[in-house]
Design a protein that fits this description.
Structural class: alpha/beta
Strand order of the largest sheet: 2-7-1-8-9
CATH architecture: 3-Layer(aba) Sandwich
Number of helices: 7
Number of strands: 9
Strand content: 15-25%
Shape: globular
């Protein structure tokens, strides 16, 4: 690890359609010693997907064994398949001096904060609700009813995030949003250990 830098867990969340996946990819490309966590899933690999790059593909039995062993930081079931963040992979990266980005929802973010109290919590906001609705419509080609349901979910997520997230970044201009996220992470990695409530280097 570069002198003066400390490995951190970085949680990046935001409503569907806000652009958080694009932001995460650009941050990882531009920052050294920062990687994005690879989720684990019980679904089968899709065309062109590789184990360890796109997901860690495991059986239902293996995933549930990990849950019972406390080896998953957070997890959820989606359409009959399990998805989650394996704790060992995150801890291996931290031990090697690499900060880890977890692009997860607010509920998962709250779970991560209890496990890593010094995690950097960043929430990506749309410029306004109208812009988010337009992005959702263009991205998913949803009908008006589905877009409204997603917007209602976004409103609830944003309200919850304001209680638990340290920093809110508005993604109005992608380049500026990426720059701001990078500044937040860089500042957190150089912050004195005493500011993290007695949580030492990992």
């Amino acid at each position: 690890m570069t002198a003066g830098k400390r490995a951190k867990v970085i949680v990046i969340s935001g409503p569907s359609g806000v652009g958080k996946s694009t932001i995460c990819r650009q941050v990882v490309r531009r920052m050294t010693d920062v990687q994005q966590s690879v989720s684990m899933t019980t679904r089968s690999p899709g065309p062109g997907e590789e184990n360890g790059r796109d997901y860690w593909f495991v059986s239902q039995e293996e995933f549930r064994r990990r849950i019972k062993a406390g080896a998953m930081l957070e997890y959820a079931e989606v359409f009959g398949n399990l998805y989650g963040t394996p704790k060992d992979k995150v801890d291996e990266a931290l031990a090697a001096g690499r900060s880890v980005i977890l692009a997860i929802d607010v509920q998962g973010g709250r779970q991560i904060k209890t496990i890593y109290p010094d995690a950097v919590m960043i929430f990506i906001l749309p410029p306004d609700e109208k812009t988010l609705a337009e992005r959702l419509g263009k991205r998913a080609r949803d009908n008006a009813e589905t877009v409204e349901k997603r917007l209602n979910g976004a409103r609830q997520e944003i309200a919850t995030a304001k209680q638990y997230y340290d920093r809110m970044v508005i993604n109005e201009d992608l380049g500026r949003a990426v720059d701001e996220v990078i500044r937040i992470i860089a500042d957190a990695r150089h912050a004195p250990a005493s500011s993290d409530a007695n949580v030492g280097d990992r």
